[in-house]
Amino acid sequence: MNAMPREPLQGELTVKTGTRTELVNVTRKVAEILPAAFSGICHVFVPHTTAAVTINENADPDVGHDILAEIGRLVPDHNPVFRHAEGNSAAHVKAALLGSGVSIPVARGKLMLGTWQGIFFCEFDGPRSRRIVVQLTPAPDS
Amino acid sequence: MNAMPREPLQGELTVKTGTRTELVNVTRKVAEILPAAFSGICHVFVPHTTAAVTINENADPDVGHDILAEIGRLVPDHNPVFRHAEGNSAAHVKAALLGSGVSIPVARGKLMLGTWQGIFFCEFDGPRSRRIVVQLTPAPDS
Amino acid sequence: MNAMPREPLQGELTVKTGTRTELVNVTRKVAEILPAAFSGICHVFVPHTTAAVTINENADPDVGHDILAEIGRLVPDHNPVFRHAEGNSAAHVKAALLGSGVSIPVARGKLMLGTWQGIFFCEFDGPRSRRIVVQLTPAPDS
Fold first, then answer.
1. In total, how many domains does chain B have?
2. pTM for the complete prediction?
């Protein structure tokens, strides 16, 4: 991070979701905005209240299906206890359970993800156009 | 973050909760401790095991109600499988599901939260006096 | 972090799990790799898709039992909706719910955990040999 001119440490991505609930693999898009010399933390942040971000299996898309199906079984759309007038309370609950951010260690421009890991944007109230903020915090190499 | 004298990058907030389970909006309190020139990550950390912190809707308080109600339905207080003698195992499980920290990107002193997002302290075993640790890690501007 | 020579800001731990689902207390191992002069964030990252990391009670092991039991009741191993051929979809869902990373504030080499908090590696598809990546991002003292 000491090279001049410095590259920006905050970036933004957009995601267009195509259905109500969906996992969108954003691993490559995140990886592409990492400066080659960067080491530290890459924080992927979702500035929405009915969407989330998670890290899970990159290889078999059935895993994403199973995660969405199981979260949907746990938190059904219709529930007599829900008061929120927009009718998307389940999406807010799912967003709270999965979380609005993930932090990934980075070494010299490379995400230190495990072999099977990818970064997934989680749509719970689509289809919509969504944003992702990526914030890098450097940990200088020795 | 280069101005002299440097402002502290770790702060602490206190929250008094008034009931058993409750979401307390701490967005303003967190925002107030950000130095105007700070860019990077603001990490909000809860040093308790029966409380959590989450980011969700700031506008309609019914959303907070629905989140607490649904988490309460999923993880009921009484469960024959629970062994912990204090009787608050459900609060520990809820804390594990929502998590003890959230990280928010900050640009020049401003939390990069989405339009509808706020930061909520989640009380699951109140009423109590609680602490929140705020840690800033800088990402120098170019 | 200004002392010369600099100590490395990224480390790795290994954990051997002994059973299918298990919480392993890694607080001491994480604490041991913190340089004495370090202040900032310690991010504990699990590069696996059927394991997670959480912060919860360090004192009574019954709490860990109750968390695993309740998560196991919520997300049972067998579910007609699961498609993933490996048969470990429940482990992937649990990993998504608890999350792949935790961030802990550090002040001069000391984790700012609460009195009752510890850091737990969460095995959901063991027994296996697992890795943990620890990434430090500095927040210089004033």
1. 1
2. 0.95
